[in-house]
Amino acid sequence: AANKKLLILPGDGIGPEVMGQVQQVINWMDKRRAVTFDVETGLVGGAAIDAEGSPLADATMEKASNADAVLLGAVGGPKWDELPFEQKPERGLLRLRKEMELYANLRPALVFDALVEASTLKPEVVKGLDIMIVRELTGGIYFGEPRGIEDLPDGQRRGINTQVYTTNEIRRVAAVAFELARKRGKRVTSCEKANVMESGVLWRQEVQKLHDESFQDVALSHMYADNAAMQLVRNPKQFDVIVTDNLFGDILSDEAAMLTGSLGMLPSASLGDPDKHGRRQALYEPVHGSAPDIAGQDLANPIASLLSFAMALRYTFDLAEDADLIEQAVQRVLAGGLRTADIMSPGAAKVSTVTMGQAILRQL
Amino acid sequence: AANKKLLILPGDGIGPEVMGQVQQVINWMDKRRAVTFDVETGLVGGAAIDAEGSPLADATMEKASNADAVLLGAVGGPKWDELPFEQKPERGLLRLRKEMELYANLRPALVFDALVEASTLKPEVVKGLDIMIVRELTGGIYFGEPRGIEDLPDGQRRGINTQVYTTNEIRRVAAVAFELARKRGKRVTSCEKANVMESGVLWRQEVQKLHDESFQDVALSHMYADNAAMQLVRNPKQFDVIVTDNLFGDILSDEAAMLTGSLGMLPSASLGDPDKHGRRQALYEPVHGSAPDIAGQDLANPIASLLSFAMALRYTFDLAEDADLIEQAVQRVLAGGLRTADIMSPGAAKVSTVTMGQAILRQL
Ligand SMILES: CC(C)[C@H](C(=O)O)[C@@H](O)C(=O)O
Ligand SMILES: CC(C)[C@H](C(=O)O)[C@@H](O)C(=O)O
Questions:
Q1: Is position B317 within any domain?
Q2: pTM for the full model?
Q3: Ligand at shortest distance from the CA of B137
Q4: Has residue A125 been placed in a domain?
Q5: Boundary-marking domain end, from A259, A280, A313
Q6: Which residues of the sequence carry a binding annotation for substrate (chains A, B) (predicted)?
Q7: Cα distance from N-terminal residue to C-terminal residue, chain A
């Protein structure tokens, strides 16, 4: 088979460190498994601003579009906080999402048995938690026009953003959610504020229509986003798949991630439309941020990035077996008591980024 | 002194039951305290739709504007779910907020010592929790134009809402937050998505400006709304006062409320601009909804409504002593082991709405 084309964008903060561990696993696969990767690397975020003058160079954007999968570390940090809106590190990530048309963001919130105690919630509330949040990623208020800040005649200023969704934008992301639910608990909860926003009314209607047309084997319910924020705290295990828009998805997926208490463990995938071979444009990244406070100190948890790579193997390369290997290696290392600082608990052995990566490699 | 003018709008579901208990306390105050109330009642929400054909009649709107304070129960229920957007029960509440210009929504998230165990979070994470969320309530995407659903030439539909904030809208609600912080922990966290939304950039700038001009004695920090959703779960006690826009406030305040595990205990106040006597237009309501599943069964917890009335005494009528009396009566009844079903715990005595109301009255 032809080599698989990977683009690695380590980004800022702890990004380079955790992606270093991913590179080790890629090397191992090249040697030991029936697959080889062509790996390119590039800059994104603050690193790209510093070296190339913009948060995502056109050349990098082109490489991303041509790769089979993009693996991203994290972007942002205080160094670039004061930059004007259009030049911030985040724009690099948003450009990737938009130009690759990665409209479906898959964010699992999963509690590992070995880490139940890491949660601030009571163990019985989160043990076995396994939610998949499907967040719309290329539409809504993130990209809607008109937008901006304008001066008013009376000396005031006015800030404007536009939430906008079309039928097709809603249907294609809902389809991803329904298809995922079919392979899981067969339940989808769709979240909006249809009691307050017309865009939410349309969202609800279109999700319901698609369900009635093509996914009647999946149980669909609708929930206001504010209620969802409550229900995630009250009884998160009531959820299987949640589908929601870009902004609500941003907030609800972060809330759900934190329920697990182990952000450093959570991967994500951002997918586009299938091409004629059924393959989707794809970007994989950990849910955690660039964590500038611990960057460069060999303290970061590489597991979220490794599991993001496992997601790439599963979703982009159809290598479920290899993905399983990595996930099992992680489980065994955790069961063996190794912990990076972020998931440390009494009695466990605290290890560095590199040591954690090596331990997982050894299990492989 | 002239009689205080109260308008009671019981609304739907459990609204009438819980407001019935508030009426008892008002009667007691009329007899025993140095204050008398003129109480009018009116319909709002589904009850108003059924009886008067719209979720808030003009006559009721006028009464609300002329009252010193409005006490609201709750609105909404499955009976009215299929009504078109403009006729839903919620529109009654939104009209009250908008026409009374109640731009500052105060939503405390408070954990009562007796109810620490009601939370799904570990006791050490929430014990002593006392957050005040100040939510902007008359602007943003709830009211911005253009809005609606339009047909596209290709047969698709498009849903649109507009997030819009002006300098003054931001400053006046931030001022309420800073003033509250002065009487509390002197810390304000302002939440937006300034990394993604220009309206968030303006929000951040104006809150910072107002702080630097007039509230330097309060510590101000800025946090992205998604991070706030995480931090509320990770370590809620890091917050004192949170100020945020209408939509983020809707979600974050519900999340924060649920951290306490006892939604049935939480009051809220919605305040407008001070008039020449320093008095603000005001509406007080429990945080919980209309709970149609338990309506009419004498099961609901009246405490959130009673504490909302206590907030009215404190903020509108300057009767801090009377507010204290009610709050202390609630504390004592809880300490005595009485619980409505929603906050029931092993070993406590389960009581009905009416019994809980009477027990609190007896403590008074
Ligand atoms: C970095 C930022 C632009 C981004 C977002 O808001 O989408 C992040 O919070 C995320 O969830 O991936
Ligand atoms: C009922 C609904 C319109 C309302 C809102 O979204 O503001 C409610 O959720 C609230 O928070 O008071």
A1: yes
A2: 0.96
A3: 2
A4: no
A5: A259
A6: 97, 107, 135, 226
A7: 23
Is residue B97 domain-shared with residue B36, that is, in the same domain? yes
Tell me: do A69 and A140 sit in the same domain.
Answer: no
Any CB–CB contact under 8 A between B141 and chain A? Answer: yes
Structure-token match 């006490």, residue found: B71
Distance CA B233, CA A261 (A): 9
**Angle, alpha carbons A235-A237-A239 (nearest 5°):** 100
- CA separation for the pair B17, B305 (Å, rounded): 10
Which strands, in side-by-side order, build the sheet including B4-11?
A: B37-41, B4-11, B69-74, B280-286, B267-274, B104-110, B130-136, B241-244, B187-192, B219-224
The pLDDT of residue A34 is above 90: no
Residues of the domain holding A42: 1-110+263-364
pLDDT band of residue B264 (cuts 50, 70, 90) is: very high
Residue A2's contacts (CB-CB under 8 Å, 6 or more residues apart) are none
Nearest CA to ligand 1 atom 3: A90
Q: Which of B259, B287, B306 is the last residue of a domain?
A: B259
Q: What is the mean pLDDT of chain B?
A: 96
Where does ligand 1 bind, in terms of residues with CB under 6 Å? A 90, 93-94, 250; B 195-196, 226
The CATH number of the domain holding residue B204 is: 3.40.718.10
Q: What is the pLDDT of residues A321-332, one digit of tens each?
A: 999 999 999 999
Q: Count of domains in chain B?
A: 2
pLDDT digits (tens, 9 = 90+) for B36-63: 999 999 999 999 999 999 999 999 999 9
Task: Check whether residue A210 and residue A305 sit in a common domain.
Answer: no
Q: Flag whether B116 is in a domain.
A: no
Q: Is residue A118 included in any domain, yes or no?
A: no
Find the residue in A nearest to B226 (Cα). A251
Same domain, B251 and B364: no
Q: From ligand 2's centre to the CA of B42, what distance in Å?
A: 20
